[in-house]
């Protein structure tokens, strides 16, 4: 065993031994939880020798440290740990979200609650599949082990529901879960070569009223100047509809001397001329109504949003993007590909027939990738894959499995918050837990 491993395990034991819940004589003390203390001591050694956790032997090293050092000590203090609680410990150790939280207290007034503890609680909420914040507080109240794992002192009352809500709003404004997920991917997959990136969008139902854009009413073009009587100031009354009148484009060939506006540019072609920041700014994010064909070929409609995911062939989500439900999947392909290219290096871009476009194929090749996009015949003859490409295209099922796990296991199906920022933060907590869970599965 390496000397660094021995030192790390000894430091962890020393950290746990120095943490006591009650002082002598029954006097209560304020201490950090054992999980948080062990994380802080172990990270000092992680900073000294960076661990590449994509390799199986190093993943097993971290797994054994948690399994044989941390869990036995916690069992001695809080009793039996259920498999779900052990999963919470593993996820918190992988994501280390408390390192990305910061306190804004300036020393005046009542100090706020530790934001790292609240962030750990929201990650545990996603792992345990709790739907509401009230349910999370009740679980922390009756579950002594979970309360200690998240970092809350056992001798003090939990924060109120309003405090949890304010903290979640601050996390959403600061995009906490997105920043932690980006750091997690760059740390564990940034130096690896990814074979396939599967891209897909999934429906996200929300309890919001759809907001539809307001368009100006199109009216016929104004008649010739000679047929219009002169307008005397103060006598004529013009309505708002007449002021916003938009001429209707006539069908058929233009007349001699008539000048018409050029055809509308393709949105995908327009995106290729923009920067990533401009693309993200133009993507609609409001709640509206969307319609999509499901896996069985039936059209389904919903109110809410659409989550677009880039998933590696190992099942780890690489990048995520939230848009309005009515936005077409192809408009998220270029922004997602640029975000994923900043984090990992992949060889193939695998997409279904919704992304069938010459522009998207050219963009994928410009990044040095091989596009594998199912052909959309559009009332024509379908072009099948070559046998080798057809085998590689089967890797796209990992995107469907990631969407299903996000909704069934990590809270993606129950959205009770409102607003695109909070909805994205809620989903990203689930994506963060899903990514850590998939990384742990690489040990098998």
Residue runs with pLDDT of under 50 for 5 or more positions: 1-54, 216-246
In CATH terms, what is the fold-level topology of the largest domain? Nucleotidyltransferase, domain 5
Corresponding CATH architecture of the largest domain:
2-Layer Sandwich
Give a quick account of the main beta sheet: strands, pairing sense, barrel closure. Answer: 6 strands, mixed
Main structural class: alpha/beta
Strand content: 5-15%
* CATH class wording of the largest domain: Alpha Beta
What's the N-to-C terminus distance?
Answer: 21 Å
Number of helices: 17
- The radius of gyration over CA amounts to 27 Å
> How many structural domains can be distinguished in the coordinates?
2
What is the overall silhouette?
A: globular
Chain-averaged pLDDT: 79
């Amino acid at each position: 065993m390496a000397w660094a491993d021995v030192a790390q395990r000894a430091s962890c034991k020393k950290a746990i031994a120095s943490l006591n819940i009650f002082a002598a004589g029954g006097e209560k003390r304020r201490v950090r939880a054992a999980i948080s203390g062990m994380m802080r001591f172990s990270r000092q050694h992680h900073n000294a020798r960076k661990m590449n956790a994509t390799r199986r032997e190093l993943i097993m090293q971290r797994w054994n440290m948690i399994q044989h050092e941390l869990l036995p000590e916690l069992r001695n203090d809080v009793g039996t740990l259920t498999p779900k609680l052990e999963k919470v410990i593993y996820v918190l150790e992988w994501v280390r979200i408390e390192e990305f939280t910061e306190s804004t207290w300036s020393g005046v007034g009542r100090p706020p609650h530790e934001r790292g503890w609240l962030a750990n609680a929201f990650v545990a909420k996603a792992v345990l599949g709790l739907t509401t914040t009230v349910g999370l507080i009740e679980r922390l109240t009756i579950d002594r082990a979970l309360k200690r794992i998240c970092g809350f002192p056992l001798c003090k009352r939990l924060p109120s529901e309003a405090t949890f809500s304010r903290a979640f709003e601050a996390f959403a404004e600061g995009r906490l879960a997105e920043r932690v997920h980006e750091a997690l991917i760059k740390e564990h997959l940034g130096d690896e070569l990814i074979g396939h990136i599967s891209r897909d969008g999934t429906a996200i139902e929300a309890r919001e009223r759809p907001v539809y854009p307001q368009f100006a009413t199109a009216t016929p073009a104004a008649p010739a100047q000679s047929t219009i009587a002169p307008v005397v100031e103060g006598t004529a009354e013009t309505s708002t509809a007449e002021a916003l009148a938009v001429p209707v484009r006539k069908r058929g060939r233009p007349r001699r001397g008539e000048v018409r506006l050029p055809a509308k540019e393709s949105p995908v072609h327009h995106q290729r001329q923009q920067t990533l920041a401009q693309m993200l700014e133009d993507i609609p994010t409001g709640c509206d109504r969307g319609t999509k064909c499901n896996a069985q070929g039936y059209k389904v409609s919903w109110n809410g949003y659409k989550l677009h995911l880039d998933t590696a062939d190992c099942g780890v989500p690489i990048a995520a993007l939230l848009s309005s439900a009515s936005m077409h999947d192809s408009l998220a392909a270029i922004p997602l590909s640029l975000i994923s290219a900043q984090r990992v290096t992949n060889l193939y871009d695998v997409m279904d027939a919704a992304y069938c476009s010459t522009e998207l194929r050219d963009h994928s090749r410009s990044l040095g990738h091989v596009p594998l996009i199912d052909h959309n015949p559009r009332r024509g003859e379908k072009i099948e894959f070559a046998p080798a490409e057809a085998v590689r295209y089967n890797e796209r099922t990992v995107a469907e499995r990631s969407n299903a796990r996000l909704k069934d296991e990590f809270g993606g199906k129950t959205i009770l918050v409102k607003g695109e920022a909070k909805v994205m933060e809620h989903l990203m907590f689930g994506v963060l837990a899903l990514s850590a869970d998939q990384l742990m599965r690489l040990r098998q």
